[in-house]
Amino acid sequence: MDLDAYFAENPMGGASSTPPGFRSGFVALVGRPNAGKSTLLNAMMGKKIAITSDTAQTTRHRFRAALTTEDHQIVIVDTPGIHKPHDALGEELNISAENAMTDVDVVAMLVDATKPIGRGDEWVAARVRAATCKKLCVLTKIDKATPDQLQSQMAAARTLAAWDAIVALSAQEGNGVDAFIELVAESLPLGPKWFPDDMDTDLTEEVMVAEFIREKVLLNYRDEVPHSIGVGIEQMEYVRKKDLMRIFAVIYVERDSQKGIIIGNKGRAIRQVGIEARQDLESLLGCRVFLDLSVKCKKDWRRDAQQIRRFGYGE
Ligand SMILES: Nc1nc2c(ncn2[C@@H]2O[C@H](COP(=O)(O)OP(=O)(O)O)[C@@H](O)[C@H]2O)c(=O)[nH]1
Ligand SMILES: [Mg+2]
Question: N or C of the chain: less Cβ packing under 10 Å?
Fold first, then answer.
């Protein structure tokens, strides 16, 4: 449900009293693809909202998640990685990521501690430097970095922008995540709750379901079917008597030859996707899930701006 619809139904929603000194605001997580933005968002939230993988263009939606405590509410804006666009989808994703940097209180630029700072990071940093809000630099994946790597990365990060602070953390192991949350909270202005207590993301359930399925495709096929797939939800219905959600979803591929790869020998590959997706969907939805997956070919959907919007990506 989007926020407008929520407030129409719950006029008092979010108006729960906030104590004096309550801080609130928006933090955008930016950085080149694979820097660890979505993983950090999940670690901050303490649960899975964003999908992650080591494939570029994993995150196609800009969306927000709200972390609310007694004394602050941090609205985290996850963004598709900013990168040189290769197609219409890439362009749409860049616009989406750049827009996320305006109108936030804090920009946190994530830099992979294990990879030398390259042109991709420079490109993002140039956009961060132009922002007028507070700026934090986050070195990620310190569980994988050697002390030497960390030290030289710290030195290199210092030169990227005029940071208000630089921190290092591992979102995977949780080290430094609480300290980062505290740092962001301190950087926020005094303000009201923007999200109601019982709403922690502005993604619709349908989009989240489609994304959770797409993640399993990215994880199961790796390079065989690059990032050229999309997932559409045809039907989703809750059967109260059985406490069961029936979901009918379609995996769209660009070429007929990719259909066979997705389905796999005797349907084994797609069955595995279904098993993994169902597990995640059951914990997301809090009920049993019946999942029907099929595969369809839709040529060149990534080049067609209208198709991209139909899939719910971009703005
Ligand atoms: N070892 C390790 N891997 C991480 C960490 N954070 C993210 N990753 C991995 O890095 C890859 C990209 O992460 P993701 O959050 O999708 O990056 P994004 O493109 O910036 O959103 C995934 O395979 C993650 O599992 C971390 O703290 N430690
Ligand atoms: Mg991401």
Answer: C
State residue 315's pLDDT score: 43
Structural domains of the chain in order of their starting residue, each with its CATH number: 3-187 (3.40.50.300), 205-310 (3.30.300.20)
pTM over 0.70: yes
Around ion ligand 2, residues with a beta carbon closer than 5 Å are 37-38, 59
- Is the CB–ligand 1 distance for residue 58 below 6 Å? yes
Instruction: Please report how the helices 37-45 and 177-187 are oriented relative to each other, as an axis angle in degrees rounded to 10.
Output: 90
Establish whether residue 28 lines the binding site of ligand 1, counting it when its CB lies within 6 angstroms of any ligand atom.
no
Give the tens place of pLDDT for each residue, 36-88.
999 999 999 999 998 888 876 677 777 899 999 999 999 999 887 665 556 66
